[in-house]
Amino acid sequence: MKFLIIEDEAGLRQNIADYLNGDGNICECCASLKCAITKLTDYLYDCVLLDIGLPDGEGFAVLDFLRNGLRNESVLIISAKGSLDDKIKALNIGADDYLTKPFHLAELKARVEAVYRRKTFSSNNPVIFNEISVDLHGRSVEVNGHSLTLTRKEYDMLLYFIANKGKVISKNAIAEHLWGDEMDIHDHYDFIYTHIKNLRKKLMDANCNDYIKSLYGIGYKFTA
After folding, report:
1. Taking the CB of the first residue and of the last residue of the chain, which one, N or C, has fewer CB atoms within 10 A?
2. Can you tell me the distance from the alpha carbon of 196 to that of 118, in angstroms, rounded to the nearest whole number?
3. Does the pLDDT value for residue 82 go beyond 80?
4. Are residues 133 and 104 in the same domain?
């Protein structure tokens, strides 16, 4: 998953990033409202971890930005403000959950995963696409009941394709989703072609149908 952590407390921000990165996620960080809006203007994310109390404004402005832009990021509020009014306001304008500081990182992770599953896959686990079965808890994949060994990037790419099945996905969108800011250092998409080629080969070697369709000059579509 790709996260944007909007938190002005440096120590907490780094602890969250380190903890989530340990599972192979991508975490980008902001310490201000201005930085957050800039990031959200330039990139797409799976989940936004949002502190309400920022040095240059209230985090509620981020929720307004996402709602007005019809964005689909999951949003989990992480705030020292635990009043009922703040919680109701946050949930009413687009937050998916609200976690009051202090909290355990394990609880944060569990809530993030629950929100993401609920929003992306309607709480289904495993996620099934024809002969492909993805266990979200174990981060494992089976094809026709047989286990498939994938790298982290291949697993994340497959899940991204399934979540967006039937949609045309640009090479840029794939790069942003899987590599975040790191994609800016690349001047071509050879690294995407390589991962897609390897993922397709592993699926087909397991007697899976070829669902990854290349659209020349546009991107890819995952479809039966």
Report:
1. C
2. 27
3. no
4. no
* Domain range enclosing 186: 127-222
Query: Whose CA is closest to 200, among 150, 133, 147?
Result: 150
Measured CA distances, 58 to 34, 79, 81 (Å): 11, 11, 12
Instruction: For residue 83, give every residue at least 6 positions away whose Cβ sits within 8 Å of its Cβ, in sequence order, or none.
Output: none
Distance separating alpha carbons of residues 209 and 65, to the nearest angstrom: 40
Q: Give pLDDT tens digits for 113-137.
A: 888 777 776 656 788 899 999 988 7
Task: Record the pTM.
Answer: 0.65
Residue 153 neighbours by CB distance under 10 Å: 17
Instruction: Say which CATH number the domain at 211 has.
Output: 1.10.10.10
Say what the pLDDT of residue 197 is: 93
Whether the CB-CB separation of 163 and 2 falls below 8 Å is answered with no
First to last CA, the chain: 24
